[in-house]
């Protein structure tokens, strides 16, 4: 099947298929009569796997590692569990950082609500942002 057909069946964009092919995650052959890339059923299976792994939260680097296990006729499931267990604390940390950022945004908006909007003077873009000071690093920890 061609790039567009593969993309449609796997519910991704044709550009995603091309990118994964350039990255070595997918393998295509060339149709000698027209030069188009041709993909087999294995590419569809692999592309669906990649899409699901991305949805779970795996990076392309991690997916490449997982697929290397499979290419060596080994089951990558143990490594998949291990990688996912490492991602949980990372994700918890990202959530905590986002929560701190949200509080900072809310506090900033609240402080801005008490300030009048400035008239453009040709020297500043937006006084609210230019006069904003970052929260102390201690407040974020």
UniProtKB/TrEMBL annotation:
State the SMART domains in the record.
Answer: HTH_MERR
- Coiled-coil segments: 88-115
The name on file for this protein is MerR family transcriptional regulator
Give all residue intervals belonging to the HTH merR-type domain: 1-69
Which InterPro entries did the record assign?
DNA-bd_dom_put_sf, MerR-type_HTH_dom, MerR_fam
> Which GO-annotated molecular functions does the record name?
DNA binding; DNA-binding transcription factor activity
- Classify the source by domain of life: Bacteria
């Amino acid at each position: 099947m061609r790039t567009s057909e593969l993309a449609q069946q796997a519910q991704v964009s044709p550009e995603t298929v091309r990118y994964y092919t350039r990255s070595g995650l997918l393998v295509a052959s060339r149709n000698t009569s027209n030069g188009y890339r041709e993909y087999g059923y294995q590419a569809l299976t692999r592309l669906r796997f990649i899409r699901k792994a991305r949805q779970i939260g795996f990076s392309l680097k991690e997916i490449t590692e997982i697929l290397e296990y499979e290419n060596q006729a080994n089951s990558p499931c143990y490594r998949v569990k291990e990688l996912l267990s490492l991602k949980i604390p990372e994700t918890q940390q990202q959530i905590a950082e986002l929560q701190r950022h949200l509080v900072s945004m809310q506090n900033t908006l609240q402080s801005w609500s008490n300030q009048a909007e400035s008239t453009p003077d040709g020297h500043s873009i937006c006084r609210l942002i230019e006069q904003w000071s970052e929260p102390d690093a201690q407040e974020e920890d």
